[in-house]
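Q: Hi! First time asking for a complex rather than a single chain. Here are the components, and I think there are two in total. Is that enough to go on?
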Amino acid sequence: METKEWVKTASVDKFPANAGACVLVNGEQIAVFNFAEENRWYATQNQCPHKGEMAISRGLTGDSNGTPKVACPFHKKSFSLEDGTCLTDEDYELKTYPVKIEDGFVYIEIE
Amino acid sequence: MKKKIILIGNGMTGFRFCEKFVESGMSADHELLVFGEENTPAYDRVHLTSFYTGTTADELLLAPANWYADNQITLKSGDRIAAINRNEKKVISEHGHSYSYDILVLATGSSAFVPPIQGVDKKGIFVYRTFDDILAIKKYIPKATKAAVIGGGLLGLEAAKAVMDDGLKTSIIEFAPRLMPRQLDELGASMLRHKLESFDLEVLLNKSTEKILGNGKITGMQFTDGSVLETDLLVISAGIKPRDELARSCDLEVHPRGGIVVNSKMGTADESIFAIGECVVVHGMVWGLVAPCYEMAEVLIANLRNGQREFLGFDLSSKLKLIGTDVASFGHALSEPHHGRTIVYENKSRGVYKRLNVSLDGKYLLGGILVGDAEEYNLLKQIVNNKIKLPENPEDLILGSRGGGGAGISVSDLPDEAVICSCENISKKTILNAVEIDGAESVPLIKKCTKSGTGCGGCVPMLDDLLTFSMKSRGKEVRKVICEHFSYTRQELFDLIKVDEIKTYPELLKKYGTGYGCEVCKPVTASLLASIWNEVVAKHDTIQDTNDRFLANIQQRGLYSVVPRMPAGEITPEKLIVIGEVARKYDLYTKITGGQRIDMFGARVDLLPDIWEELIDAGFESGHAYGKALRTVKSCVGSTWCRFGMDDSVSFAVEIEERYKGIRAPHKIKGGVSGCVRECAEARSKDFGVIATEKGWNLFVCGNGGANPRHADLLASDLDKETVIKYIDRFIMFYIKTAEPLTRTAKWLGSMEGGLGHLRDVVVNDSLGIGEKLEADLQKLVETYQCEWKEVVNNPELRKKYRHFVNSEETDSNIKFVALRDQKMPAK
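A: Yes, that's all I need. Here is the structure of the assembled complex.
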């Protein structure tokens, strides 16, 4: 049976506004993004499925027709932060994780 | 049973025949067997010079080798047909194989005409016609110091430019009293001649070569007037000779001056044999341009399918760009006085000559010539071809209407059936349909959708005009807006940021944008903020592109490289030792860069501030290798040490690099300074290049290395240092203000209206009256420079951002190295 747990990562002030940062959760690298104006948070795998680089957290964030997204810094593949699909017409996909903020800390739910 | 067609010749015309064969569906009841004597399948011979300058053979192929088989065409490359047996309807190849045909098509093309000059078989003498010719010339170039080209026509001038660009002092030898005698009149040719001479091409007219001098290989040429020219490489481009030898050998009729005689349906006297392209004579002449040859291929395909099409002659208008100079002739360019009147405009200071030939009644345009500025070429050609009635003051067509506005004729006046792209035979209506019905609302889409503009490319500006016309007439706008978040151009954003004193991206987005931004508008804004306010980029780290966020170039495995500035490539032994010690301490892979400095690779993001702290303590600064900013100003050895140096290139390069370091621009900027014409700094491959002369410095601009190499153009000559700096100030600031994002200066110039002439007007002649403003804006950037790495190293808040995990001190476990030649590289 699958078990899921919320893992506390770091305090909110450790994360840059309107950009990404990387956290280490149970040995996994997870990219966390903060859309500060609306206090919306997203989390995805940090590894870009294109060339396998651990780089998604260093990508530029933004939106494409309203869908929040991140562009990998290596070759500018863009991914939806809502469901991890690649927006630049390719078969790559990012795994996404639920995020919540409690007591000023960022929590990520992982299996 | 399928009818057998054999096509001899896989050049451009032969390929067009194949293409139309496939399109027409003839393969249902015909087999097509094609013979090409060259080893490569058909390629774009029109752009042969781009093969000379580095485009690969594959890129010039008209279709990949498998295209033929994919379309049920059998291609035999490198197998020459040696004989035709008309009685048995067979062709016999060089290898002795025979093949039978029902229909035989000769598209054997032409070869370079080599005049019967004594000694013309010596080594070092070439023609300019095929890939093999180009490779042979290239191979010989290192053995030569001086080149000559026989033939001052279209191709001869291209060849001369190509060998000159390889560093050889080059002379053009023309038999006629003027250059391009078929296209230009006396005045136009002399304008072109002055232009070529200003680029150090020697032009010798009225010269007939009597013999080639040299023992085994060419050392010079002797002319009939007794004069002698020393040269050790000769390219002959004196016209073409139709390849009619096969036709001759099987007793088909050939013209006394060469060429297979065909009727207007492309048929020979043998009803099974047809001929097309440059190997034929039709309407009494050989048609040596690609467009009419394509037309012949299409006519023949139509007739083979029982059509009744005729080749009725063709527009021989042509336009080319030579050493940055446009040269065009259209319609009856050289019409006689009794046919019409001429309107001539000549501006020697700008090197422009324009001539219009107007009918005696003043109603129609017959033809004309444009040298130095051929912007109106496409429209003028259309006015001739479509017999459009001239406006009251036809001179407005070449001078622009006095009192503003156009001259009264534009693309909207052309009839629907006007042929816009003559290579592909595409009409105005077809193009407008592509835009309006198929939604091809950009030039690349129009090209893809209609194939127009994919041949010689001459009609591309007109495609743009048609697009703008169509969009405007439907109330749509064509503007190069940044992205979906800002419906402004980069130049508009520049002004908005400046006028509204906007200092951050969120401010700009809130005031002028929508949504959350993206990876396009964020770095553009970051660059604009830096170019305008010159605050340390690290303060805007989250909107910077990859490299500017951590002030280092991201490499494999997310590692970074470190490049300290070494102005002009000069470095003291002490500083060299520091680099060595830092690289050893942090175990970095070191390599010399193309810009004369040292790159240290393999730094983890968390180590960057520590590494830079040590470098800054030793007196280094950021090299901005990661930024869209000034990279390096490369220098040669210069007169302090070099025995050939005319001036101290290193000191000047140091001064220039120190002046412009850190300045953010639409793209990276590279410079170079050479101490003499040997140009060891390769300054002409840079965005700006300075080369010492006997009388001062020559300034070149808009060069480029990389994927699309381009030699920089001469902007001004024999300048003193202060003027060089003044012009570079203006040039860089004008570039920063007006270029599209991520556009190098070469591309920027390429799309600049008025081209180099306009740039020179702005920078040198200050035609817009903004010279002092540009200098002042640039001076402000120079005065507010600060080393951004110094700022990061000394600012604990900024320094904290350099870590891989925000919740752990661990490092990225994915980073591993393997050994490489006594150093290391990232493991895959």
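A: Residues 474 and 641 of chain B are 66 Å apart (CA to CA). Let me know if you'd like any chain examined more closely.
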